[in-house]
Amino acid sequence: MEAQTMLSGFCPNPAIPSVQNAKKPFFAKPPSSHSSFVQSDNWVSHRAVLSISQRATKRMECTNNAVEAVDVASNEDLTSGIRLKKLAVFVSGGGSNFRSIHEASLRGSIHGDIVVLVTNKQGCGGALYAREKGIPVISFPKTKDEPDGLSTACLVATLRRFEVDFILLAGYLKLIPVELIRAYAKSIVNIHPSLLPAFGGKGYYGMKVHKAVIASGARFSGPTIHFVDEHYDTGRILAQSVVPVLPNDTAENLAARVLGEEHRLYVDVVAAICEERIIWRQDGVPLIRSKENPNEYS
Asked: Are 161 and 34 in contact (CB under 8 A)?
């Protein structure tokens, strides 16, 4: 199947412009149509798209140790009235944060569903996990190693087809293009394994971060979750968690402790995002409103 044929269902107009909603802080969803997806071994299949709606029709709630199936086909939370959010996750590697978020969604800790995975490496662990769980996988960007990758315009159009509300970067190592940032204004977050703004920026990723932290003599490290702008690791900070750097730490030991805290923090933050508990201070700083006490923020 030729690439142009595969793209026809996703990007009917390759010149589709980026859209920024100036009135609301989050991306407003257009009407959707899933009728034109085309199947391909390296692409998002129609069967995979159907599995999204099949998964969305039933969620499980645990009450008094009994499991009760609740019909949420209307995407409405029966207790709060908040619409179930649709999430896209971007990965380049093993995707352990992606897995923890997905598992939290399945058990109901996050009021959202991961409807699509985007990767620049089709063979990475995160992409393999997504396929095992029936989550559609998309290649981005188009490169020599990933010839089936989408252009930025087609990626935006495809995410709209999936009705994506928020984008979660979970170890995605490519710079996000400005067109995507504008289309999803204040709706893209990233997790970084240091206390930004320290040890961030181009070239600071994975074990390189932890080696730099130890070499600096810093006594504390930990993950940062921030909104994404057009540069590496410079967007507004949303949440941080402190992890001590021990005197005899290796980069591997520190990385393991920080990663454990990443899993906890990212799930908590995504839960807050899906529950619409993010507010923006007048100076542009995002805050998380407490679920238990709406008058408290973090």
From this structure: yes
